Prior knowledge:
The protein is of the alpha+beta class. The chain has 3 helices and 14 strands.
Amino acid sequence: MKRISGGAFKPLQFITPRLVAGLLVLGLVGCSSKNTTPQFFASGYVADQGINRLWRENNAQNQPQTILNVYSPYFGGDTVITRYEYQDGQVHLVKETHATKTDLGVMLRFDEGGNVSFMQRQLPERREKLSSDDIERYKYEAAKILDVSSALQAGNVRLIQARWRQGVITTCAGEQVTPNLTVRSQVWLAKRATRSNDQLGLAWLTAPEGNELLLVANEDFCSWEPKESDL
């Protein structure tokens, strides 16, 4: 069984957009000419009301092609899956769907000039156009997700998802591991484990500074985890 650790362990603060911005300003997150950037990269961060898990695909020139954002709210609400496609660093497509409410969703396409070429909001009983404020909000979110994803990738903040069963943690890639988690994360996992008779889904971030548990749920994250071929 592999133990995930990076030398002297330091607790990894929950990654938030504000923290990412601070790291960029301070120059603590940066690309090294010696490092090769992977074309497929998974990461994540904490939003105000939930968790964002990101899967990103770059082309051979390290330009963003697709980012899949899975947002899971802390309290109630449905998981929202948003697919962003980019051309030359600009958003080309936004497609938002819900995990269980399949009668809800948004589709936006933009031309090379950044103008809307198609837009639609799917509601339970009808379809409608989006307002100009809605369009600007989706464009802003697409740019923010791209910036945050780039910073997380540069800082090598990686997302790992796994299954927990009777004390054994197996990643979605099939590797048994023992992640070196903070005390808070260990207590969180232990409490959830006492209420589970079978299996839990785990998601955590690993970075040079350490590891931090993001999610523990009665859900098999591996059953839907995106692969490079899916993007």
